[in-house]
C-alpha cells in the first residue's frame, strides 16, 4: 500500500529496513559492555553487535573482529578517507569508528544492530540517516565509576585519568534535552539489565510474531498493557514518556524508507 503510493509519487526506489538500531553510550566504565554481554547471551539471534574499529591496543581476552577491529592509525585513516565510515572519533588518545560494513554485517543477519559508541559518536550518528534509539548508561556517581574502572584493571593511571575527565564531560553533555531517549543508571546490575531488556523487548508480542525471541525466552504471561508498563518504567528510570508509549511495537514495525 505504502510502496504503491510511493511508486505513484515517482520515488526511484524504496528499501525495506528492519527494526531501528540501538545505540548504547555513556562514560567508559559505566557498564555498557557488561550489559551488552548479558543481552547478547540471552538474545543471541535477536541483537547483533556493530564491531567498531579502534587504534587502541587489545586487552587480554579481547578478540580481533569480535570485540573490535584492531587497526593502526594509518589503516583506519585510509578507510575513513575512502568514505567507509559512518562516524569516527578520537577518545582518550585513540581513534574509534563505526564502519558502514559493521552495521551492514549485522543487518544482513536480520538482527537488531547495537552500537557501543561515545558521546561524539552519538552526535555524529544524529547527522546520519541511521535513526537509532539512543540509550545512555551512567554510573551512580563519578566515585563509583572510578572504583569500577580501577577494579577492572585495564587502565594505566594515565588512561584512567583521561577516562575520568572524559566521563565528566560525557555526563554534562548527556544532559542536553532530547539527546537520549533513555538514561539507565547502572547501580544494581540486574536492575539496570531489567530496565534495558524491558525497553528493548517492550512490544514482545510483536517480537514473537516476528520470531525474534530466542527459544528459551519466557512466554508472555498476559496481554501487554502498554500504559501500565510505561507507568512502571517511568518510576524506575529517566525516560521520556512518548518513547515508552511508542516502545518496540512501533519500532519493530518494518520501516519503509525512501531513497532518492
Ligand atoms: N565514536 C565511537 N566511539 C566508540 C566506538 N567504539 C567504541 N567507542 C567508545 O570508545 C570509548 C572507549 O572504549 P574502550 O576503549 O573499549 O573502553 P571501555 O569503554 O572503557 O571498555 C567508549 O566510550 C566506547 O563507547 C565507535 O565506533 N565510535
Ligand atoms: N552494576 C554494577 N555494579 C558493580 N560493578 C559493575 C556494574 N556494572 C559493571 N560493573 C563492572 O564495572 C566495570 C566496567 O564495566 P564495563 O562493562 O567494562 O563498562 P564500559 O563497557 O561502559 O566501559 C567492569 O569491571 C564491570 O564488571
From TrEMBL:
Domain of life, per lineage: Eukaryota
Localization of this protein: Cytoplasm
Enzyme class: transferase
EC annotation from Swiss-Prot or TrEMBL: 2.7.4.8
Main location: cytoplasm
Catalytic activity from the UniProt record: GMP + ATP = GDP + ADP
Record-stated family: Belongs to the guanylate kinase family.
Location of the Guanylate kinase-like domain: 19-201
Listed HAMAP family: Guanylate_kinase
Spans traversing the lipid bilayer: none
InterPro entries: GK/Ca_channel_bsu, Guanylate_kin-like_dom, Guanylate_kinase, Guanylate_kinase_CS, P-loop_NTPase
Protein name in the entry: Guanylate kinase
One GO molecular-function entry: GMP kinase activity
Entries under Gene3D superfamilies matching the protein: P-loop containing nucleotide triphosphate hydrolases
Keywords: ATP-binding, Cytoplasm, Kinase, Nucleotide-binding, Transferase
GO cellular component terms, A-Z: cytosol
Organism, as annotated: Zosterops borbonicus
Amino acid at each position: 500500500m505504502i510502496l504503491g503510493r510511493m511508486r505513484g509519487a515517482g520515488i526511484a526506489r524504496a528499501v525495506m529496513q528492519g527494526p531501528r538500531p540501538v545505540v548504547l553510550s555513556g562514560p567508559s566504565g559505566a557498564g555498557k559492555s557488561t550489559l551488552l554481554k548479558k543481552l547478547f547471551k540471552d538474545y543471541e539471534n535477536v541483537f547483533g553487535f556493530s564491531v567498531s574499529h579502534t587504534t587502541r591496543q587489545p586487552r587480554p581476552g579481547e578478540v580481533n573482529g569480535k570485540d573490535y577491529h584492531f587497526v593502526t592509525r594509518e589503516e583506519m585513516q585510509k578507510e575513513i578517507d575512502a568514505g567507509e565510515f559512518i562516524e569516527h572519533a578520537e577518545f582518550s588518545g585513540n581513534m574509534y569508528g563505526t564502519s558502514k560494513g559493521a552495521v551492514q554485517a549485522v543487518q544482513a543477519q536480520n538482527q537488531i544492530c547495537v552500537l557501543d559508541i561515545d558521546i561524539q559518536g552519538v552526535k555524529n550518528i544524529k547527522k546520519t540517516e541511521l535513526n537509532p534509539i539512543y540509550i545512555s548508561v551512567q554510573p551512580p556517581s563519578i566515585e563509583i565509576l572510578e572504583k569500577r574502572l580501577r577494579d577492572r584493571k585495564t587502565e594505566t593511571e594515565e588512561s584512567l585519568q583521561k577516562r575520568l575527565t572524559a566521563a565528566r564531560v560525557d555526563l554534562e553533555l548527556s544532559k542536553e534535552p532530547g539527546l537520549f531517549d533513555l538514561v539507565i543508571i547502572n547501580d544494581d546490575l540486574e536492575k539496570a539489565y531489567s530496565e534495558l531488556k524491558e525497553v528493548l523487548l517492550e512490544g514482545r508480542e510483536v517480537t514473537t510474531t516476528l520470531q525474534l525471541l530466542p527459544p528459551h525466552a519466557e512466554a508472555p504471561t498476559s496481554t501487554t498493557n502498554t500504559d501500565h508498563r510505561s507507568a512502571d518504567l517511568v518510576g524506575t528510570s529517566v525516560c521520556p514518556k512518548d518513547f515508552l508509549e511508542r516502545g518496540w511495537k512501533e519500532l519493530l514495525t518494518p520501516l519503509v524508507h525512501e531513497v532518492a
